[in-house]
Specification:
108 residues, mainly alpha
Length: 108
Amino acid sequence: MWILAWPAQNGSLGVKILKWTADPFQSLPATPSPLAFGRGDDMEAVQAHDAEEAAYYKLYDSSRLSRLRFELRDLQDPFDPSTERQVLAGIGIVLALLVWRQETKAGR
């Protein structure tokens, strides 16, 4: 179980599994990036950006399931990796102490 939550450079294994489950064939369109600064005068760039956003939001708003898939695909780890390691190590130590205490009580 700990291996699923242990952070890596590009996300924990649990988050990677959720992202893959949401979009296993990478068929969902990418989140549209904002229009680059200074490109607002280029009508073709604005129209292409608007078309990309329209296609994205049409699929995003098509159903609750597709919205959930987009949200899971874009999921990030909830903590900073160094904080997450410390929290997981602390939980592991506390659980080990609790198990040790239960075993010493049972041995009496």
